[in-house]
Amino acid sequence: MQIGNLTFEPGAVLAPMAGFTDAACRRLAAQHGSLYTISEMVSAKALTFGDKKSAQLIYNGENPAPYGVQLFGADPETMGQATALIQKYAFDFIDINMGCPAPKINASGAGSKLMLDPKNCGDIVAAVVKENNGKPITVKMRAGWDGDHITAVEVAKACEAAGAALVAVHGRTREQMYQPGTVDWKVIAAVKKAVKIPVLGNGDIESAEDAKAMMDATGCDSVMVGRAALGDPWIFEQIRAVVNGRPMPEKPTLRQRMQAMRSQIYDMCEEKGEWAAMPQARSQALYYMRGLKGAAALRRACCELSHFEDVDRLIEKVYEAGNG
Fold it and tell me: Any idea which fold 2-243 has?
């Protein structure tokens, strides 16, 4: 799979998720085989206003995988200006968000709302390409806005014509949000057939078997994994093994899971400060508790994390509950 000057074997990519895929989360995913990682979404308009918080979202730190900055916005000129402003940062490509279903984002015309205007989607890609100094542009989109507006093929074609190097297609409409069982593989297959650039399939990938099934059924080049990767970064190495015909790696031990959680939260505290990091760490820790004995009590303990030392007490409770 080729994205500009970047070459990848088939596998899986960590989906950008606001509030979750910070530098520490991305680093862990990359260490376990995510083909590349992408920042949390950054407002193009906020960047042009000099917003420091938006600029902080671009920070990546040490990361072994190629890295992209995800921008969102509805105005081609503003998206181009924001692209020019971030050239001083270290990144390998820009990802354009055309898939976020959040009402606040859609109200500004950005995110999934762009799926109603394929021409504007192409204009946005062209504006970003012009200011990105030759680095690749990728696009994250949905199947469409609703059942009456399945526009993924038209949007993908417009983006490709404007210079996009890859499109990732979440097989749900904005109207469907994240409803389980609603991913339409036919839309992903139609996009793959319509464009020459690589296509990632996205939606309800929870295992290596799911990834292979989607790739076999749609012809997509690789997949993008979101919530299933939280608390389970090993899913990336599992997917890479299965889709490339290699033996499935052994499942992580409980000790490895707890070490990964502790390391991730430690990095969060180092990079953001304990006061800012620990409230966010509660949500991350909850995902590491999936499938454990005494999960209800452990979830309560996750919600009480306030200082880094609380993480070690949480791990003690995991073993006290009869796990391991």
Answer: TIM Barrel (3.20.20)
